[in-house]
DNA sequence: AAGTTACACAACCGCGGACCT
DNA sequence: CAGGTCCGCGGTTGTGTAACT
């Protein structure tokens, strides 16, 4: 047996609300509240509308303190981060943005923000020694089930990125969108480990973001900040600029936490150098809080890589919880 | 100027789950 | 506990308008 309709669809008005209808609804709710019953409300308010339509109109447009349009950069970041973290749970995202509605955010995402991010996902060539491309990214945004979503297709000079995983893992349908978005965020983003769930950063500096999952993240983070981040740590690397032929300056951000722990994230800046002429390449990280590139502690990370270790690492890696950071 | 296309936003629809009886 | 009702959510569609040809 099907469910009873919430209203007599033949007798309710549909389509855009007139100013008169808005006035009636506003007046009624100001006087009486919603009464906890949207189905009965339109009749009481003298509206020939479905209760659901009234609810939507009120929540999205008529209730006080609603903001429309002009999303700020901060709001963009919050939306991106949360989307990458929890997916398309617009109501939860909206709860973090006072005055914004889930519908508004959803529309904004679908019409603007997603495109903005995808625009930044053009295949990226860093240097003639460091070129790689990402495939399937655009398709995957619109077709989340397409897996593998991203893979590191080509490393013209593989040792340059030995410390990075190539992707190619299959995404489960439940997190594929999230994972993809992780890659999409940033001025130019790559999610290099296909096994990961959300890992996202906004690279406001206009740099070329490279996302690499790093099994030694715990070591790195602990060394810099003394935080025991554990398996939920991730590292974000954004290739900011090339200093010279041998060195690449990388802004790294580390964060930890789950979807409910976004406020616990922290980051650090580090310079990252790897010397093409030495094997194995190494990262020199000089960390400081808040992306300031301080020098409170430093260490080296040996990023030796081989096909076998890559496979092993992927297998051993504990799937990251959703993590997020903002540069 | 008219027609077409693209875009942004508003609104609708159906489903899952909470709540009530 | 089962069935009915309603709310809230997210996906989708509809509509108005700006941009383009």
Automatic annotation (TrEMBL):
Subcellular localization: Nucleus
Q: Which CDD domains does the entry mention?
A: SANT
Report domain Myb-like positions. 9-62, 63-113
Q: Please give one Gene Ontology molecular function term for this protein.
A: DNA binding
Q: Which InterPro entries does the record match to this protein?
A: Homeodomain-like_sf, Myb_dom, SANT/Myb
Ranges of residues in domain HTH myb-type: 9-62, 63-117
Key word Transmembrane present: no
- State the SMART domains in the record: SANT
Q: Which Pfam families match?
A: Myb_DNA-binding
UniProt GO cellular component terms = nucleus
What the entry lists under PROSITE patterns is as follows: HTH_MYB, MYB_LIKE
* This protein's UniProt keywords: DNA-binding, Nucleus, Repeat, Transcription, Transcription regulation
Q: What is this protein called?
A: Uncharacterized protein
């Amino acid at each position: 047996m099907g469910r009873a309709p919430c209203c007599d669809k033949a007798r309710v008005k549909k389509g855009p609300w007139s100013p008169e209808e808005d006035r009636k609804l506003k007046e009624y709710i100001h006087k009486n509240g919603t009464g906890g019953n949207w189905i009965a409300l339109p009749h009481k308010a003298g509206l020939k509308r479905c209760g659901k339509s009234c609810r939507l109109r009120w929540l999205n447009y008529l209730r006080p303190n609603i903001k429309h349009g002009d999303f700020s950069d901060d709001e963009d970041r919050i939306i991106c981060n949360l989307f990458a973290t929890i997916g398309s749970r617009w109501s939860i995202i909206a709860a973090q943005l006072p005055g914004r509605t889930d519908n508004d955010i959803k529309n904004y995402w679908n019409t603007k923000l997603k495109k903005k991010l995808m625009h930044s996902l053009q295949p990226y060539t860093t240097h003639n020694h460091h070129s790689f491309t990402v495939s399937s990214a655009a398709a995957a945004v619109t077709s989340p089930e397409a897996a593998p979503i991203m893979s590191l297709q080509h490393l013209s000079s593989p040792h340059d990125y030995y410390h990075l995983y190539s992707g190619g893992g299959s995404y489960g349908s439940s997190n594929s969108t999230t994972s993809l978005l992780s890659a999409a965020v940033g001025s130019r983003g790559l999610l290099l480990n296909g096994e990961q769930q959300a890992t996202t950063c906004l690279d406001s500096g206009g740099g070329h973001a490279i996302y690499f999952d790093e099994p030694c993240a715990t070591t790195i983070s602990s060394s810099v900040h003394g935080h025991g981040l554990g398996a939920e740590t991730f590292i974000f690397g954004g290739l900011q600029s090339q200093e010279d032929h041998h060195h690449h300056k990388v802004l790294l951000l580390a964060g930890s936490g789950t979807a409910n722990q976004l406020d616990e994230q922290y980051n650090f800046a580090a310079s990252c150098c790897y010397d093409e002429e030495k094997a194995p390449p190494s990262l020199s990280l000089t960390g400081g809080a808040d992306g300031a590139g301080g020098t409170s502690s430093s260490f080296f990370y040996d990023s030796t890589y081989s096909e076998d270790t890559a496979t092993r690492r992927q297998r051993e890696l504990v799937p990251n919880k959703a993590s997020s950071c903002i540069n």
